[in-house]
Amino acid sequence: MSNQYLRISLRFFVLILIQVLLLNNIHFLGYINPYIYILFILLLPFETPRWVLLLSAFALGFSIDLFSNSLGIHAAATVFAAYFRPGVMRLITSRKEYEPGVEPSISDLGFQWFFMYAIVLTSLHHFMLFLLDVFRFSNFFSTLGHSILNTLFTVLFIILIQYVFYRKK
Amino acid sequence: MRNLFNFFWRHSNFILFLLLEFFALLLVVNNNGYQKSVSYAWVSEKTGMIQSEYNSLWEYLNLKQTNKELAAENARYRSLLKSSYLVTDTLVHFRKDSLYHQQYKTLSAQVISNSTNSLTNYMQLNKGKLQGISNDMAVVSPSGVVGIVVNTSPNFSWVMSLINKETRISARIKKNGQIGTIAWEGGSYRYASLKDIPTYVRISKGDTIITSGYSHVFPEGQLIGVVNDFTIKGGEHFYTINVRLGVDFNSLSHVYVIKNLLREEQLKLEEPVK
Question: Chain A residues with CB inside 8 Å of B25's CB?
């Protein structure tokens, strides 16, 4: 049990470091930048209480904000995505039961389930993120386009990471 | 109380979510230059809009007061007009007010009752003796002559309207200075007759009719109306002139009461001769 907590905490810090030191400097095509840190929110165990989910999402987003000089933007987007996580899970049914100890990952629930799950939550997160970054509704569709493109990029990275680190289980 | 607590408990996650989002947004608009300027601009525009709406509402509610103030101001200006002063022309003394000696004083008043459908129309004003109104003062409005004060009580006064068959006002055709008398003989309240203009005088439709100032009531040059129509009846030496009155008596509200400060003196002068 303590092993699991340790793993989750470690994941929190490692993802932040990868994000701010490595991925924040990609700027592919000027604005495409994978935000893989939300993998932390995606991978939290099923039985995580909702308030823990929300508070850890805020802490995560806030940490990213501190490093990328955008105070509040990532925090708002991450909390937004985290709030909808349980709902999205209920929406996407799985052949396996959501039981304690099972992580919402590819290795536990399969590629198809995880892909849908990641796409929906990442879209929510990115949409909020881009909206807050642009901070106006006038160029709504260009904002939407950017966030969709970026979502695909982020999900690609998240799935690659899953295959690299979690294959053994 | 218990229900309230239950409500909060049941929605505690949603409330936590809202609190966190609110806090994050607060951070966004306070720490990011661009977002800060955008949100400040938005907020100041909205508050400005509310402010101006509020102001215009307030202005509307104050219209009555404003109207009153404007009327009082106009009255003050009218008493300063050149036509309110008697030109004495005697430059014996070099005192400043020897050239212009004030002859007319103007007060503003409001019509509080009025009639247009009788043959003897009167109206009541909301000012009387205490406010300095006395008999035989002239009543005018910006669009023309209204009538003459015939009776006063401490706070109200009774005005014989121009559209009263007893009223006679000395008038003049502005164009050529011909003197006549304005009288109203019933009919439409928008029209009166101008009498005593001899047929050799050339007049035309649209000529302006003003007060002559001969009656010691009206200052000279107050608008009465314009010539609407005129005829010469067979064998008569005077025109029958129909004058369209400047004042719409049916929609009259603010008027000015003009006092001739030298009237007593003028009347006294005439007395021995009469």
Answer: 72, 76, 132
Res A169: pLDDT: 46
What is the domain extent for residue B33?
Answer: 2-61
The model's pLDDT over A114-153, given as tens digits with 9 standing for 90+, comes to 899 999 999 999 999 988 888 877 778 888 888 899 999 8
Question: Looking at the complex, does the CB of residue A79 fall below 8 Å from at least one CB of chain B?
Answer: yes
Residues B116 and B143 in one domain: yes
What CATH number is attached to the domain comprising B83?
Answer: 2.40.10.340
Q: How far is A12 from chain B (nearest CA, A)?
A: 19
Instruction: Find the CB nearest B16 among A51, A72, A136.
Output: A51
Query: For B214, phi and psi rounded to 5 degrees?
Result: -80, -15
> What are the tens digits of pLDDT across the range B17-76?
999 999 998 888 888 878 888 887 788 788 878 877 887 888 788 888 888 888 888 888
Residue B257 and residue B123 share a domain: yes
Give dist(CA A62, CA B136) in Å, integer: 86
The total domain count for chain B is 2
CB neighbours of residue A134 within 10 Å = 18
Nearest CA in chain B to A73: B28
Q: State which amino acid sits at residue A11.
A: R
* ipTM score: 0.84
User: Which one of A61, A65, A136 has the shortest CB-CB distance to B38?
Assistant: A136
